[in-house]
Amino acid sequence: MKRLHISIACTFLFYIGLAAQQNLVLQYQYDVAGNRVSRAAVEVQPPMMSLQLMAHGGEVAVTPTVTTDIVTIITTLDPERTAMTYTLSNLQGCVLGQGVIADRQTTLALSQWPSGPYLLTVRSAQKTESFKVVKQ
Prior knowledge:
Layout: H1 2-22, E1 24-30, E2 36-43, H2 46-54, E3 60-63, E4 66-67, E5 70-75, E6 85-90, E7 95-100, E8 105-109, E9 116-123, E10 128-135
């Protein structure tokens, strides 16, 4: 009985660790009576997660917000019809970089900046959104 509990705990911890490393989401299916009939681990890519968050009313998402180098700005707006710009600044307000968003996905490299928190501001004609980005 003790071995069964240890085995179940190890399996559970394995799935939790696997999900944390690979952006896995566990999906369950149930029958009409409410009994679970299947379980599947589905990998979700970070931009896909951001698009799911944007479905709740956001027009712009930044992923990942904690990074070692690359940050991607994803927008649901058409950049050809809506002028959009971004500004990267430190928390003291010093502007470190600016640019125009020309595609639905724009990649920024933070490799030239030291580790620490930054503020990424995305402006369009409709609104301005700010995102905290941490470089490790």
